[in-house]
Amino acid sequence: MTGYNASELIPSAYYTYQLYEKGFMTKDWYQYTSTRFYEDSERTKSMGPWWTSEVQKINLPNS
């Protein structure tokens, strides 16, 4: 499927994301991201609202 009509089947987009972290200096470390997709490289034509991921708990063995 790669190469054959891939540009029509898989839409390309530019994106911006923000990473949020909570409790990174403790053993209870959580993070999530907010992402927004754009049609152009200048990031002026939005493809929709911000998408926020679920909160993930990060388990660090040395924390």
Question: How would you characterize this protein structure?
Answer:
- With 63 residues, the protein is mostly beta strands.
- It has a domain of 44 residues.
- The chain is 6% helix and 38% strand.
- It has one helix and four strands.
- Strands 1, 2, 3 and 4 form a four-stranded antiparallel β-sheet that branches.
- It is elongated and about 45 Å long.
- The mean pLDDT is 82.
Please report the distance between the alpha carbons of the first and last residues. Answer: 44 Å
The rounded Rg comes to 17 Å
Low-confidence stretches: none
Q: Please, what is the average pLDDT? A: 82
The structure class reads mainly beta
The tally of strands reads 4
DSSP helix fraction: under 10%
Q: How many strands, what sense, and barrel or not for the largest sheet?
A: 4 strands, antiparallel
Q: Report the order of strands and helices.
A: HEEEE
**Roughly what fraction of the amino acids lie in strands?**
35-45%
Counting H and I runs of at least 4 residues, what is the number of helices? 1
Q: What is the multimeric organization of the chains shown?
A: single chain
